[in-house]
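Weekly structure sync, notes
Attendees: PL (lead), two postdocs, one rotation student
Agenda item 3: pending single-chain targets
PL asked that the sequence for the first pending target be pasted directly into the notes so everyone works from the same version. It is reproduced below exactly as submitted, 396 residues in total.
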Amino acid sequence: MAAMTFSARPLLNRRLAEFGTTIFAEMSALAVSTGSLNLGQGFPDTDGPEEIREAAVRALRDGRGNQYPPGPGVPELRTAIAAHQQRRYGLSHDPDTEVLVTAGATEAIAAALLALLEPGDEVIALEPYYDSYAACIAMAGGRRVPVTLRPHEGAFRLDLDELRDAVTERTRLLLINTPHNPTGTVLTREELRAIAELAVERDLLVVTDEVYEHLVFDDAEHVPLATFPGMRERTVTIGSAGKTFSFTGWKVGWVTGAPDLVAAVRSAKQFLTYVASGPFQYAVAEALCLPDSYFADFRADMLAKRDLLAGGLERAGFKVFRPAGTYFITTDIRPLGESDGFTFCRALPERCGVVAIPNAVFYDHREQGAPFVRFAFCKRTGVLEEAASRLKTQAV
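Predicted structure, written out during the meeting:
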């Protein structure tokens, strides 16, 4: 058979040339090959509430969602999302025109950016950021402009002057994530108010990723950006069931916002998955109606796990940034005599049988993230205890 020939043009779209295999795939494969405890990728190692799993089984057996669900999502889930936003935050949404169900938050981010950006538009994102942000901005033809969160008094903080200075005539959109992955920062009410005032002043759109809304600790509070004056009509808010109910494989996310914004996102989303997760949508509708005690217990359980792992990391010699939200802990490896997170994380499984993620993958300015490493604590207590023991005895 004659060999196929191609032009000199690369096969991969140039906009995606910088994005290879994700670090999550690499580190998860390393966890398997070494038999290590995987504290790298952010998924729980136990399922969520049994009654919600049974709700999915019931939907399957009843034939609800086994065929294509409605494009915007099943009415029961859209109604439950609207009720959740009203009950929690006083945000009123029409389930028919202001709520859109997506294949997880990742698709919601992609659809929002593809819908709202044109080539050359600038997008300001808080660095470090979830890796799909950069890829989705690139696919939309936008230009990402990172504003870096920097360590200050035990947490990663936003410099509001730097944020304001980053806005230019080409800025189209602010991409905000709070509670913030990977740093665990929760933006304060004052910081959010300043972001809102900037967006209104410069007439900017905002996409806000709030998937960890129910995982805030200590004195932190989650305040949706859409609740501030002038923001409801310019904000696309993204939520997800995966992080709150520990069913990440179901891939059920959503978008809420003003009708014209949601319609724009829907126009892009319909040409991505079109629809997904039919039976699971009915189950998530029931999950969102769980009593407040579920959310309080879930948060308390994660807080205990945060403190367990954070304490173990501190005893092992890491500098720990104890997160105010999410289920990730960022650490500084310089007290261990290390400075390169990639080298450290690739060696850690062989050294002590634990997998983590180098934060530098979440930065455009790789040198800013070089000494930081992220651990996930959404695991069983026994796994975290064993990880802490391994790190203490062999990592230092």
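Discussion points:
- Residues 196 and 231 are 6 Å apart (CA to CA).
- The chain has a mean pLDDT of 95.
Action: rotation student to compare against the earlier draft before next sync.
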